[in-house]
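RETRY 2/3 - previous attempt timed out on the joint model. Re-submitting the same 1165-residue input unchanged.
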Amino acid sequence: MIGAGLLAIVLALSLAFNANSQWSEIWSGIAAGAGMLLAIMAAIGLYQQRRARVRLDVIKDTLIHGEQRYRAFIQNSAEAIWRFELERPVPVALSEDQQIDQYYQYGYLAECNRMMAVMYGFDDPGQMVGMRLNDILPRDNPRNIEFLRQFIQSGYHLIDAESDDVNRHGHVVHALNNMVGVIENGHGIRVWGTNRDITQQRRSGEEAIARMRQQSALAELSQRAVTDSLQAVIEHASKLVHNALSVDFVTVLEFDPVQHQFRVRFGIGWDSRIPNGDLVPADSNSQAGFTLQTSPTTTRDGFATYEPIVFEDIRNDTRFKNTRLLEQGVVGAVTVMIHGEHNPFGMLGVYTAKTRKFSSDQIEFVQAVANLIAAVVVRQAGHDALCRSEAQNRMLVEQVKDYAIFMIDPDGRAASWNEGVKRVLGYDEEDFLGTPASDLFTQSDLFKGVPQYELAEARARGQANNDRWMVRKDGSRFWASGITTALRDEDGRLLGFTKVMRDDTPRRRVEMQLRRNQRSLSAAQRIAHIGNWELQLSNLKDLEQNVLTWSDEVYRIFGFKPGEFVPTNQRFFQSVHPDDRQAIADNVKAALHGSGVYGIEHRIVRPDGAQRIVHEQAEVEYDRIGRPRRLIGTVQDITDRKQAEVELEHYRTHLEQLVAQRSRELEASHQRLRHTERMVALGTLSAGLGHDMGNLLLPIRIRLDAIELKDQTRTVLEDLQVIRMATEYLQRLSNGLRLLAIDPERNRHGGETTNVVEWWLDAQPILKNALRRGTTLQDKFQPELPAVQLPRHQFMQMIFNLVQNAGDALHDEPEGHVEVWAHRTDFGHVQIGVTDNGPGMSPEVKQRCLEPFYSTKTRGISTGLGLALVHGIVQRAGGQIDIDSEIGQGTTISITLPASTHFSPQNPPPGFIAVNSLSDPRMRSFVSSVLSSSGYQVIEADRPDPARAQLWMTETKSADIDAVRDFIESDGNHRRVVLFGNLTERINDPRVLQLGDRPRPAVVRQTVTNIAEVQSSLIAEPPP
Amino acid sequence: MILNSPIRVLCVDDNFLVAEGIKIKLSLAGGFEWLGQLADAEELVQQVRHTHPHVVLLDIDMPGKDAFAALEELRDEGLDTRVIMVSGHVRTDLIDRAVEAGAWGYVSKGEGAEQIIHAIHDVMDGKFVMGPEVASEYRAS
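RETRY 2/3 succeeded.
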């Protein structure tokens, strides 16, 4: 370029001085020739001098500041830089596996910079020094083994190779590595390298990385094409293509038109049978010869380019045969001719060992590289190499219309243009040149200083990523994907920058959509607790050797942070509950060997010990010939659902129990209601019947009395006697019926008593009717039996049930016999019983017969409540029930009840004395009547007498307060006074309960009942 | 109440046979003046004012005017006539109402005519009367 500039100056001067001379053309020709020679010589001289000086300076600087600069460079580098030392030198003669083994055994990190510490989650590089290789590059990840294998295969010089490292927290870091092994005396002793974190880019997809590599390679080659020798460019281009396309072999052949054969200029990946310099026939049957036959296309600038020849599988290709390639294991390839100055120079070929479909991007890339080599060939071919190469370089970049490739001068203005600029950015050449590069950035990026930052990065690191939204000439935005490379001359001076970019908007949109979909999927998985996983099945014999991938949610389900480690089959099984592992293994085996699918619920144990239940479903994916290719599955955390199911089952069972219990209660309630209704209906009928009978019997009996008083014959008197007996019977029946009318549910009990003998007279007709005809009813009562403390209606209800039960038991007995009996016991109680000569009870029946609803009879006959009802009445009355029964020996049910106490002056009631001084004689008499009917002896006196009286009545309107006070003081039994009526003044003594002068009948009744209850308890439990 | 003259008795009962029977019984017993029988309580106060009975035997379960309402009217008149309830129904609530309304006694028809004569005499002696069956029921409630 400098030469070109000088040449232009000389030409301009000669034209200026000789513009009007006839000889001017001759002179100008001579001057131009001489000027040209002078200029070239001067330029070469200057160039050589400057180069020597720069070299000296560099050596000098290196000597003076070597260590210091080295340190500063390393520490301040934007890339991670590191040095691994091997504790023991590793012989390169060992097999790859052995070398890898020893790298892991002896390799440790000896040095690294700050960027590396940051990249791996450490604060300081010193924290990393000493880490073993396995700490950073886990050996259990098959990809990492492959990575090291590539390193060895590359001759210990690996460029842009990816590894799956782990950081301090165990998270995977996808690293892009460049590394060089130091070999001494056939032994590896250390490895230098740089790497950077491409985790983010990796997630954007392999394609993006490949594209980036290609762009990077193109940019780098463009730069080298200007300065480097042909051989250096060929070798470098081969390596770049080899790595950028991840192909197995690369060859650059040079065509010898005289011998009509190719010679190998450079090769990568071939074994020793194809050394450099080897000859390759160019007959039309071979692939190389076939490629040679392609015709160049001439561009508008006269530049020739060739169409690449692509084959996916050489074994099936009918166009040519190439046994040499087949012997090397080549399957797929792209070959393209490299144009020379006038004739084809040679051929660039990239080859794969497997079937491969090359994308148009990749094919175009190979073609572009071939053209770059061609540019160098031309550049070296003649004296105008510089101009030609620049022109061809321009041609080259113009070929790549999908890429905007242009230069920016150090001031940040566009300095070149290609077709791609028009296509991608919308600028014509004249518009574009001189345009500030910042015009291409969005307002947002301008505001953030992105243009300056990008150039600064390119300046510092050589290259800078150029992936961002940019602005076309018409103001529209597009997603640019490319690289900005700093362009320097041989002295290291910055000449400007090259920018390579393409419009990647559709791909970006797809990627963004993909990311959104992935985020949605991830969110959906997180919400639904569903994760997905994939197990590559490259090794069916040992599943451990296959690559397993988990989605983020799988990590979460298993209790880990997403990406916390590289999943393996072994790690998976570690999380599975030990008891479930075999079942899973069996399912996987069955799926792989036939069914193709499996679904299983199993337990997992999280790192914190928590057990979860998951459901896994998986399908085997097969290749075209039916071999299992991979196993794709989902895993869902169903613990909550399972728990909900268990709880639901629990609630359902509980609900059923509640329903059953409620049903029983309802049944019981229903039975009680039916029984009550039956009894009430019976009572209503009985009451009506008893009432009407009583009404009719009254006049009959009165008339009998009247007739008897008249003089009658003996016969008539005898007849009257019979009629009287009949009416007396009917009267008792009427009374008995009215006893039944009492509500059986009424169970209040307060001092009421029943005279058993008197009761029997009324009850006997009813009870007799409760028995079947032929069954006899007898009574046996002890003379002078005291009353029992139980209301008549309850007593009736109780004995009626017992007699009825006895009658039912005697249903099949021809000579049934029932006896109702009563006698006094030694402890102030009366025992009443009902005895029958029926079949008796079994021990089980005897034990359970008091339970509600227990019955040996059919429901139509019995409610099963009879004996339970009796038991309830007895318990409330403070009594006791006993059953004496044996099979074949009849049954006796006896009830023991407290005997009533009759109070008298000799047997005064404890606790209370009632004083009746009501002013109304009718009410005073009513109170005395109630007290008297409750067993109190009522004595009238002017004043209460503790020695003999329980009741003091006075006609005065108010009680004599002195008399009451005297009584309280003189009563040796310390009884309380219940006073009906007013005192002249109030006595402040808690022993006096005053009810006033006009008590209501219900209050009187309740008070007397309360007194009776308290006295009964005092009698039962006398104070010590 | 000390009398030298016969006890004047008025009977209110819708059952003619019952009233007739009591009339016969009182007649046989002697010492009573039968003032007549009312089939309902409608004209009780008026009849009492007119005939001045010492004792009224009052049935409860009758058609027409409520017996307790008539009893209260009689009490409110302030007349010196003592009323004994004579009923086939023996219930605590009825006894309570009778006492509150001013009755001097409560006798069950099932206790027989003799009990009614005793009741009339006791009431005339200033005693409140409850027949045995009535007393038993009242205390048992």
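Chain A touches chain B at residues 687, 690-692, 694-703, 705-706, 709, 731, 734-735, 738, 748, 751-753, 791-793, 921-923, 925-926, 928-930, 933-934, 1000-1002, 1005, 1008-1009 (CB under 8 Å). Closing ticket.
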